[in-house]
Every structure is written in C-alpha cells, then in structure tokens.
Backbone:
C-alpha cells in the first residue's frame, strides 16, 4: 500500500473515511477483497505470495492498514512479510497497545501501521519506533513517516478535505485516487531509488507496464455503525479490473 488518506472524526456522518491505493508488481499473485473463508469476520484482500494483507476491517470494527517505508539501503531479503502485521491484528482480539507491545520492530523491514478499534486510531512506525494517538483530523501516509509532505500526500489531503464536503457523493474520492500527476523533479523526495522511479512513484495513481496501482480502496464507517467497503482493482496499463462492494453493520465486541 503506497498511499493512505484518512479522515478521522472530521465528518459528522462518517467518523472514519479511508481512501487508499496499493501499488505492487502486477506479477505478484493477489486475491481481491473478500470475507476470508477461514476467518469470516475479516474483510480484506490477500497477498497470495506471502499470505498477509495491506488493509482490512473486521465485523467488530478493527481496522488496520500498512505502507512500506522506502529505504533500499536497509532492505533485508530474509525479513518476514510486513503484511503479516495487518493480518495478525485483524485476526486477533488484543488492544492496540497490547498488540504493538508484542511486535518485534527490528524483525521487519521498515513499515508504517495504522490501527483502529472504533474508539481510537493509532499510527506506528518501526523506523521511528514511536506511536501517535491520532486526534480528529486529516492524515496522509505514503512510504515515509505519517504526514511527510511528499507531493502526493499534500495534494491528497487537500483533495480529501474537498471530497468530504461532497459526501455522500463519492466521486471526488475516487477521482483523487486516480490522480496520475507526476511531481516536478525539484519536489521529489530522495529515497535511494533511481530518479525514474522517484518520478513514477510520485503520482497517487502509479502507471507502468510491470508495476503500478493494483487496487483502490474506499472505506467509510458511518456514525450508526455501518461499514461501506469498496475496492476497484486495476490491471496493467491502468485497465479497469473487478469492482467489489461490501455493506455491513459492525457488531459490538461481546
């Protein structure tokens, strides 16, 4: 997942709004968002190569999403899949703090996590090894720390604010996830990848023959406890893939 935009307790009717793009190689096998047969409380896509996921929610309102921290110099080929962190939280019942307490941060390559339980939303990165209790507001997360002012993060947060005002019309939310604007070179971060990749990855919606935005996800949790989860998948060349829609009422923990 390479761009996650979040509105937390900003809109009176939707306390949680998430608009996110997952970027990945098209050759990596992936299952689209669905309730997992082996864990029917979990709604998420699945990485069929490593077994984890990148974003999901449960029928009890546990939410989590992940981005990788881009730093090629610190990548370890044998590190466990970061997608396991998302799956483990969705499958578990621990509090956010208890879950973070048991993570071995040095075991994984760099990552950022957002974790919610319906009452709280917490951001954590093993790069800074810090937790941030998020106050009501707009947040953007790409492949650096939370709210690092990369061009697509800044533009995305601005667009998210405008899109919230249009709800329940979702067209502006989908539009911001399709923004394929390449940032000018002088605005690009220096993350250790070649300049051609910095340009490519500077767009909210990434397009190339082998690597790009594989799915766009829109999640809205209503004040009455109704979850709306939509996933649009994308094929090479930005061709339109499958659209999946889920609507369900969150249950209170027993």
Residues:
């Amino acid at each position: 997942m390479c761009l996650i935009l979040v509105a937390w307790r900003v809109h009176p009717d939707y306390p949680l709004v998430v608009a996110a793009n997952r970027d990945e190689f098209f050759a990596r096998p992936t299952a689209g968002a669905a309730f997992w047969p082996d864990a029917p409380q979990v709604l998420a896509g699945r990485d069929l190569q490593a077994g984890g996921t990148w974003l999901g929610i449960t029928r009890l309102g546990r939410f989590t999403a992940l981005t990788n921290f881009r730093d090629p110099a610190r990548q370890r080929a044998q590190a466990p899949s970061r997608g396991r962190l998302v799956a483990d939280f969705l499958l578990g019942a621990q509090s956010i703090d208890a879950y973070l307490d048991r993570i071995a941060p040095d075991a994984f390559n760099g990552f950022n996590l957002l974790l919610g339980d319906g009452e709280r939303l917490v951001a954590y990165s093993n790069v800074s090894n810090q937790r941030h209790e998020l106050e009501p507001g707009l947040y953007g997360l790409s492949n650096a720390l939370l709210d690092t002012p990369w061009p697509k993060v800044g533009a995305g947060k601005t667009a998210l604010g405008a899109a919230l005002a249009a709800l329940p019309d979702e067209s502006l939310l989908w539009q911001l996830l399709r923004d394929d604007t390449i940032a000018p070179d002088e605005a690009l971060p220096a993350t250790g990848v070649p300049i051609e990749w910095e340009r490519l990855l500077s767009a909210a919606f990434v397009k190339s023959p082998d690597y790009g935005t594989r799915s766009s996800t829109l999640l809205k949790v209503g004040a009455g406890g109704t979850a709306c989860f939509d996933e649009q998948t994308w094929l090479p060349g930005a061709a339109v893939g499958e659209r999946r829609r889920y609507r369900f009422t969150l249950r209170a923990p027993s």
In short: The CA atoms of residues 185 and 196 lie 10 Å apart. The chain has five helices and 13 strands. The chain has a mean pLDDT of 96. The first helix runs from residue 83 to 91.
